[in-house]
Specification:
heterodimer, A: 243 residues, mainly alpha, globular, B: 242 residues, alpha/beta, six-stranded mixed β-sheet, four-stranded antiparallel β-sheet, 9 helices
């Protein structure tokens, strides 16, 4: 019951925040519309909906990092967590309470993105279902990243780092706007080491129902999700004792 | 048996001793004030008593339970209203209280009764459905204390409960604290000396992590030979440790 209570509170805090609707849903949709319009005038294969939609979906998920980081850091700076640390809630209650509500919110966000893509002309296939299922795994990485930064930074720092850096990294290093192999060199190497491009490639493969194509991207996404989730749990539990 | 017993309670951060071998007892039902200038060790003391941070040495017992050996049992008996209001900003007054009831596994009708009772006792009916972020400072403080009381704690820690409130809101908060005083033991930190003198049964004055004196406002004034409590406090701080 304790976990569920905390979980419900997280969901309400995020869904009632206008930032969620504006940035999480509105901004990715605007980008999708804009790039589709460009594609119609100057056809570019990358901006075809079957390539572009997974990229926009993953770009939208980068805002989930911002939401989760902001929530945790605000709970720390307003002493809300200090109050809760004197209650019977345990470390696992906090981690589950902050993580679980963001998974359906991520799914909803991506579903709206795919719905818009269908309206714009994306062919309805079973691949859309597979692509949406991949959001569960991909969102875990972005949520964990948020929990990690939210545990160590203030809400002002989170705004800068997650609001600007993570969203930009997701945009530039995901292969959504341009093919990173065209830049080549160190840029391509870094892009391939980081998880963002793999999040997009995983979803692109699933949208095409190309199950062989999900590897090695799935391993990268799972690996980064596990790494940041473990790091977030360690940092958060340490903060429980030191804040 | 005292409700709260501090036994050489000490907290060190590297080379800095934030709280230095604090020893004192607080009786059941007492409203006890912790006074001192910034950095005196008041908040660190409250953090140790409320299990938020571990003591470096010594121990503290809450109703006979050690904050070091039995922190989960201590947590069942205490509640804290931190310096910042510490409420869920996007939730309504009622939702904040219901959330706290859920966290303490208080369910169904009992939870509803508790929430209704606290809303009535703290005069929150008019803002029941209002989101916390839209409340005035005074209402937010009341909600903060009401949230702390949902679990019917034996000990309540109030860290600067009237900080930033205007005169009227502060007077209302004093009434709120007086109304809950008889039911539980309260430890209060404040910078407002008239508040401490008016409200607290006994006071402890701290400086540089050490206890300078403990007693009633009257006994502290007598000890320093001052008629005014503020002057008595200033004398004690300037004199330093006895």
């Amino acid at each position: 019951m304790r976990t569920f209570t905390f979980l419900r509170r997280t969901a309400k805090e995020i869904l009632l925040d206008p930032l969620t609707v504006l940035m999480g849903l509105g901004f990715p949709l605007v980008v999708l519309l804009l790039l589709t319009a460009i594609q119609r005038n100057i056809p570019v294969k990358m901006f075809e909906l079957i390539e572009l939609t997974p990229g926009i979906s993953v770009f939208g998920l980068s805002f989930i990092t911002l939401f989760s980081a902001l929530l945790v850091s605000k709970d720390r700076t307003t002493s809300f967590l200090q109050r809760l640390f004197t209650t019977p809630l345990t470390a696992s209650d906090y981690i589950l309470g902050y993580t679980l509500p963001l998974i359906p919110i991520s799914l909803l966000q991506s579903a709206v993105c795919y719905l818009a893509a269908v309206i714009l002309g994306l062919e309805i296939t079973v691949g859309i279902i597979w692509a949406l299922l991949s959001v569960i795994v991909i969102s875990l990485f972005f949520i964990a990243l948020g929990l990690f930064f939210g545990s160590i930074l203030t809400d002002k720092q989170v705004g800068g780092l997650c609001g600007a850096l993570v969203t930009n990294l997701t945009a530039w290093l995901s292969g959504t706007w341009f093919d990173v192999s065209m830049v080549g060199g160190w840029f391509e190497t870094i892009a391939n080491i980081l998880p963002f491009i793999h999040c997009v490639e995983l979803q692109r493969a699933l949208l095409k129902s190309d199950f062989d194509g999900i590897f090695p991207h799935l391993w990268f996404v799972l690996g980064y999700a596990a790494l940041f989730m473990i790091a977030a749990v360690i940092v958060f539990t340490r903060k429980m004792k030191s804040d | 048996m005292p409700m709260i017993e501090l036994k050489s309670l000490t907290k060190k951060y590297k080379d800095i001793t934030a709280v230095d071998a604090l020893t004192l007892s607080i009786e059941k039902g007492e409203l006890f004030g912790l006074l001192g200038v910034n950095g005196a060790g008041k908040t660190t003391t409250i953090k140790m008593l409320s299990t938020l941070t571990s003591p470096t040495a010594g121990d503290a017992l809450i109703d006979g339970k050690s904050v070091i050996k039995e922190p989960s049992k201590v947590k069942e008996m205490i509640a804290i209203s931190p310096q910042e209001t510490a409420v869920a900003e996007n939730l309504t007054v009622e939702e904040n209280l219901s959330m706290m009831a859920g966290i303490f596994s208080i369910k169904g009708e009992k939870a509803k009764e508790k929430v209704d009772d606290l809303i009535a006792r703290f005069s929150l009916e008019s803002v029941r459905k209002k989101r916390a972020k839209k409340l005035s400072g005074g209402y937010k403080r009341r909600l903060s204390i009401a949230m702390a009381l949902i679990s019917s704690p034996k000990v309540l820690f109030l860290d600067e409960p009237t900080l930033g409130l205007d005169v009227i809101a502060r007077a209302e908060m004093w009434d709120v604290i007086r109304s809950i005083k008889r039911d539980l033991t309260i430890i209060l930190t404040t910078h407002y000396l008239e508040e401490a003198e008016e409200m607290c049964d006994r006071l402890a004055v701290m400086k540089n992590g050490r206890l300078i004196t403990v007693g009633t406002a009257e006994s502290i004034k007598k000890e320093t030979g001052e008629d005014d409590f503020e002057k008595a406090f200033i004398n004690l701080i300037k004199e330093g440790t006895k």
